[in-house]
Amino acid sequence: MQYLFGTHGRPNLRRCWLTQGRHATTHWASLHLLPFFGAVPVNERVVVDGAWVFAAGVTAGIDGALRLAAELRGDETAPAIQLQMAYAPERPFNSGTPETAPVVVLKQARRSVRAITAQREQTARRVATKLDIAVPAAAGE
C-alpha cells in the first residue's frame, strides 16, 4: 500500500482535491481552512484516514512519521527509530495548543499569524471555487 503523509504548511495546490472527504488535521491557525479543500477538520495532533496521515505541526510531524513507520515496518521498528532519534519530548511549557495556552500567549500567537492566515484563506477560497466546494462567506461579506 502507498501512503501519503502531510504536515502543516502550504497545501500542494495541484493535489489538494485529493483531500475531499478525508478526515485531516493541520496547524491550529489553519485548521478552519480544511473544509475549503473538501476535508473534514479534526483537532488532533495526528489523523490517519486510510492510507493518509496528517500531522498538525512540527512535533506532530514526528509523531505522524513514527505512526507511519509502525504501519510500514511494525510496532517493533517505530520505537527503535524513536530511541535512535532520542525523541522523548519534555514540554517546558503547557502552551502547545490553543486549548492549553494561556490566554495572553494565545492572543499574541493569533496576532502574529493573522496576516499569513488571511492570505491562506484567500488562496483556499480560490481553490474551493475551482473545486466547486461551497464555503462560508468571509467575515464582512
Q: CATH first level: which class?
A: Alpha Beta
What CATH calls the topology is Rossmann fold
Overall average residue pLDDT: 89
Rounded to an integer, what's the Rg over CA atoms? 17 Å
Number of strands: 5
Share of residues in strands: 5-15%
Span between N and C termini? 44 Å
Strand order of the largest sheet: 1-5-4
Are there runs of 5+ residues with pLDDT below 50, and where? none
CATH architecture: 3-Layer(aba) Sandwich
Run of helices and strands: EEEEEHHH
Domain module count: 1
> What is the count of helical runs?
3
Shape: flat
Query: What is the oligomeric state here?
Result: single chain
State the secondary-structure class. alpha/beta
How much helical structure, as a percent, in the residues?
25-40%
Largest sheet: 3 strands, mixed
Please explain how this structure is put together.
There is one protein chain. With 141 residues, this protein is an alpha/beta fold. It has a single domain (4-131), classed as Rossmann fold (3-Layer(aba) Sandwich). The protein has helices spanning 58-73, 77-85, 103-131; strands at 4-6, 23-24, 40-41, 46-49, 52-55. A hairpin with a 2-residue loop joins strand 4 (46-49) and strand 5 (52-55).
Summarize the structure.
By secondary structure, this protein is α/β, with parallel strands linked by helices. The chain contains three helices and five strands, in the order βββββααα. It is flat.
